[in-house]
Design brief:
By secondary structure, the chain is α+β, with helices and mostly antiparallel strands. Helices cover 56% and strands 15% of the residues. It contains 6 helices and 3 strands, in the order E-H-H-E-E-H-H-H-H. It has a 3-stranded mixed β-sheet with strand order 1-2-3.
Length: 96
């Protein structure tokens, strides 16, 4: 995983992000927790195009499902479920 911390960004600014983006998507960490993922514009456009392509089968865009504010009605995960899923994924990460 390609990780950049907020402290790295404070020290080096965008140079830290540019260097990390050379290796692929960048996972931004804040207080030892995943905070965001940074993509190059071309990578983001490919992701969106893929989501639209896959939406033909389900009638919904995957990102719309994940970001849905009402998971029970729309099939989305909702904020609490997403936080629980992230916690499970990163439970084995060592604390810094």
């Amino acid at each position: 995983m390609n990780v950049v911390t907020v402290a790295d960004i404070k020290r080096s600014g965008f140079a830290a992000l540019d260097a990390a983006l050379e290796r692929g998507p960048v996972h931004l960490m804040k207080r030892n927790r995943p905070s965001a993922v940074l993509l190059r514009p071309a990578d983001y456009e490919r992701l969106v195009a893929l989501a639209h392509h896959n939406a033909a089968a389900s009638g919904r865009i995957g990102l719309d499902i994940l970001l849905s504010p009402e998971p029970a009605q729309t099939g989305g995960l909702g904020t609490q479920a997403m936080q629980e899923r992230l916690a499970q994924m990163h439970a084995d990460w060592p604390e810094r």
